[in-house]
Every structure is written in C-alpha cells, then in structure tokens.
Amino acid sequence: MTNPDHDVIIIGAGLSGIGVARYLKVECPDKDFAILETKPRMGGTWDLFRYPGIRSDSDMHTMGYAFKPWKNAKAISDGGSILNYVKETSREYGIDDHILYEHKVQRADYDTSTALWTLTVETPEGTKTMTARFILSCAGYYRHDEGYLPDIPGYDSFKGQLVHPQFWPEDLDHAGKKVAIIGSGATAVTLTPTLAEKAAHVWQIQRTPTYVINRPAKDRIGNILKTIFPGKLGYWLTRWKIIWAGRLRRKKFVSDIKGMKKLLIGGVGKELAQDVPDWQDHFTPPYWPGQQRICVVPDGDMFETLRQKKATMVTGEIETFTETGLRMQDGTEIEADIIVTATGLVLETLGGAQYAVDGQDVDPGKLLVYKGFMYSNMPNLIYVTGYTNASWTLKVDLVAEYACRLLKHMGEKGYVQAVPRAGSEDFATISTAIKFTSGYFLRVRDRLPKHGTAFPWVHEQEYFWDRKTLKRGKVDDGSLDFSTEGKAVVFPPEQRCDDTVEMAAE
C-alpha cells in the first residue's frame, strides 16, 4: 500500500481538535498526525467570538476535557479563560508542533484502490495536497466566515452601526448609546446584561421567547469537592455530580414535560413578576423544553438588568429597519445607535469542504449518520461534534476514545479501511421526526445528514447511550466493514450525486 504523508489528519484546532489530538498522542503514540486549522490561531469558537461578555452556556466541569481538570472557580466561565484552557492543553501535551495554521481544506478525495484520502488544501504558499489514511473532522457545525441574517427589509436604510456578534469590531464603543439586540438565544442573553452596564439603554428584540434559567456562575458543591479532593478526583466527582443531575433532569422532561415547562417559566416569574409586569409575554415559549437549548443566566445577571430597567424585552415581528432603528409590526418604533444581529449561525457539514469517494461527490444531505460519529459509505472518516442538550465536550471525549480504539484495532488486525456500509434498505428507514427545532437547524435541515430509526443508523443525544455504544461497545460489532486492502464502495441510488460516475465504478 502507498505510504501517506500522515496516518491521521485532524481538521480543526478548536476545543474538539485539541482534545482529539491529546487522545491520539496518549492512546496511539505510534500514529503520525497533523492538525489543519483554517485560521492563524487555535481555539475555534473561543477564538472567533470576541463580543463583550462571551461565556460558556454549559458547566465547564463537563465542558472541560475528561482528562484535564477545570481549575477555575467559575463553572459558567468567560471565553478568554476557556481559550487559555485549550491553549494550555495543547502546550502540555506537545500538540502545538502538529498544527498547520491557515490551512483550509477545500476537497477531500478518497481512493479505495490505495485506501488513502487526498486533501486539497489552501495555504499561504498556495494550494497543495496532503494524504492520510484517516480523517478526524473537528471542523465544527457552522460557518466561521458567515453569520445568519434574517430576511428583514431595510438593512441599508439604517444610519447607525450594524454589528453581527460573530464579527465584533474591537473598537466598538457602546457607552452611553442606545443599543438594540435582535435575538433570543445564548448570545443575546449574554449581550443584554453586558452591554447594559455602559449603554444608555438596551432593547432585546425577539420573535419567539426562549427558556431561560438562573444558575450560579460558581458551582459551590463542586468547588468544595475540588478543595477536599484536589486534582483529578475532585474534578471527577464534580463531573459525575453534574452528569447525573443532567440525566435526572432529562428523565423529568420525558415523564412530566408539562410540569417542567411550568417550573421553568415559574422560575422566571420569581425573578421578574414584581418589577416586569409583562414578563410572561417574553418568557413563555410556544415549544416544549428540550426542543431548543435552554439559556443559562449566570447569577441572574439578565434578570437583574431587567429589574433595574437598564434593558427592555420586546417580543414580536420586526417590520423593517429604519434610518434611526427598527419598526415592529405593531407600529412600535425602537430608536438605536447600534443594532446587534444576534440572529444565529449558518450550519454546515464537515467544514464545508467537498468530499468524494472514488470520484463520486458526496452530498451531506444524502448521508446517514452512523452511531453519531461516522457517515454512511464514507471510509476512514470520523466526525466529532458534541451534544445539543448537554455539554459539547462530553461527546467529544467519547468519540475521541472510540477513534483511538478503532485505529488500534485496525492496526492489530492489519486493516487499512473501515466503512459503515449502507444500502437502500437502510435509507428506507429514515426518521422524519423533528426533536430539535432551533431556527439555525430548521433552515438547513434538508442539507444535513439524516437519522435512521434502527441501529446503527439511530443516534440519540444521550450521554449514557453513547457511553454504552462508544466506550463499552465492541469496535468490531458487525456494523463496520473492515478490509486489509482498499475495497470499492458502491453508493446506493439514495446516496448518489452523480449516476454517471457511479455507473462507471460498477
């Protein structure tokens, strides 16, 4: 077999990519790998987003790596501390030297005759190709060079400053100015209290309310555990306290969803009922808990801002931008010097690169998800994404561990190719049920990989299910096709993009 440039190529040097690289270094020290990062710096999301107050919306005792304790007293932590944690991990495990910055993957072509991926990569020195036996894609789930803007008339008519949080100007001065924030998710909930500290006033404008919950920025019990049991033991105990609490909470959602909705909305009422008379209009979502992410308000900062009248919630449809701000469909005029469009992300699969197998281009919308970490008929490729209903990195750790088990198994058996083969019968069981209803997902759902209804094409957003499947399950459980030499992949009609290429392959 042809020798590749690297055994493994990791795409992305963010929280996921650095974590995966650490597992490779420790569990598969014989594997040569490189990390390709589009930007000139590591950090991914935590390097890209630089708006005021940026923070995690998950507890860092579970969003931190399983192998590296989170030592900061704040569990809901600021973005700078998270970025430093990622950088520190890279230094500690000697990962820095493996990273190639400003290397953007444009194409990835797999050749079954050689069992190799050939990547076409844009670099500062020009376009070049790199080969690898295996790809671990940690490119994330959204476009870093584009933020979503809803179709609202009049953008160009606004005479003030228009800002998207994904591209926050370093020199933006909002002190003493009127600020309108469009959005209802974690970014808007973070920006509202932060900008209100210096702004003349802040309006948070949302089309649909979101579930919002007050949560201490510091985990008191967790910090006590880390003090009594310093090092990894205290961190481990704190992680499992949070993991089990999350599992019990999700079970409660299933068994008593109406009760949980009442509890979440009632919690906001306790915060705002005396000072914000119309609070129910702004904090009573029309969907069930769990269908979208629940926004965390650390130490109730947003509620305190609303109580002090430094910010005002506005719920309804925007009719148009005006020269001086926004006009709502009910005729309400909102004057603003700065409008922040915290309106969401643009989702994409595999970092937006074009993938192909034996000349057959791959359409992400025609893929089936295999166990939540591989795709149908895609050889030697693992993608790494986290949870929508829990901390992102809980899933990253499990997938990284499994990837190392898979690579070691292939090495021991002499296998050069592993592929989750799917036929027409597998595509006949695609699930059309929608569990997650956030706008950024619904906008592109037709272009995203699909879920089946039976193993191994079923995918649960459930940590304990993944522990059973990825951590304890057999690598060779009969659902992966292994071979000691490259073995052609025949795409079923449901997955084909180019019938001519496929017919030629047959």
Main sheet record: 9 strands, mixed
Q: How large, in whole angstroms, is the Cα Rg?
A: 24 Å
Strand content: 15-25%
Mean pLDDT: 93
Explained architecture:
The chain has 506 residues and is of the alpha/beta class. The chain is built from 15 helices and 25 strands. It has helices at residues 15-27, 45-48, 60-63, 79-92, 186-196, 220-228, 232-255, 257-272, 279-282, 301-307, 392-413, 424-427, 439-442, 463-471, 499-505; strands spanning 6-11, 33-36, 99-100, 104-111, 116-123, 126-137, 142-147, 161-163, 178-182, 201-206, 212-215, 295-298, 311-315, 318-321, 325-328, 333-335, 338-341, 345-347, 354-357, 360-361, 369-370, 374-375, 381-383, 417-419, 481-483. Strands 1, 2, 3, 4, 5, 6, 19, 20 and 23 form a nine-stranded mixed beta sheet that branches. The relative contact order is 0.15.
Please describe the structure with a list of short key phrases separated by commas or semicolons:
single chain, 506 residues, alpha/beta, 9-stranded mixed sheet, globular, disordered C terminus
Question: Can you give me a brief rundown of this structure?
Answer:
The chain has 15 helices and 25 strands.
